[in-house]
Amino acid sequence: MRHLMLLVLMFSFSVVAHGQFYKWVDKNGITQYSDQPPPPGTARAEERLNIKSGLAQPVGGRTNASASLAEQELGFKKRRAAEEKAGIERQAEIERNKARCIQANSKLKVFRDSPRVSLPDGAGGVVFADDAARQKGIDEAQQDINTYCR
């Protein structure tokens, strides 16, 4: 009895695998797909579709499955290495932004809280910041905080 059931099951799969499919346009202009021929009176002639079931052919029509699998695995390894490299670069950028954020917060604190802020004068000396220079430093620090502290 099991053998008979197995035989019927296998036969049913083979019928589906070799079935014919049709494509046609009905009276309303809608494209229809079916395994039955189109009804009489369709607006346009039917078109038989050759659909083969089973595994798809590899790209390039190659039939050597092991070569195709090796190519797929190589492509996968290349994509994975590129993703890991991009992840490392993103992490490094995040770390740089954290350091810049800390530096900007420190700069803002110095300009806001210190009564006398000394700045380099460019000639090796030091000058004390007036109110305009202090405000400029606060604005620059706030802009850096907005950029790097997210």
Please provide a brief summary of the model.
The chain has 150 residues and is α+β, with helices and mostly antiparallel strands. The protein contains three helices and five strands. The chain has a three-stranded antiparallel beta sheet, with no helix packed on it. A two-stranded antiparallel sheet has the order 4-5.
Q: What would your notes on this structure say?
A:
This protein has helices at residues 2-17, 65-113, 131-148, and strands at 21-25, 31-34, 47-49, 118-120, 126-128. The protein is of the alpha+beta class and 150 residues long. Among the domains are: 17-53, no CATH class; 91-150, no CATH class. The protein has a three-stranded antiparallel β-sheet, with no helix packed on it. A two-stranded antiparallel ribbon has the order 4-5.
Largest sheet: 3 strands, antiparallel
Assign the structural class, choosing from mainly alpha, mainly beta, alpha/beta, alpha+beta, or little secondary structure: alpha+beta
Q: In oligomeric terms, what are we looking at?
A: single chain
Total of DSSP H or I helical runs spanning 4+ residues: 3
Helix content: 55-70%
Strand arrangement, major sheet: 2-1-3
What's the helix-strand series?
HEEEHEEH
What's the N-to-C terminus distance?
70 Å
Could you give the count of β-strands?
5
Taking pLDDT < 50 over at least 5 consecutive residues as the criterion, the unreliable ranges are: none
Morphology: elongated
Mean pLDDT: 80
Strand content: 5-15%
Q: Measured on Cα atoms, how large is the radius of gyration?
A: 36 Å
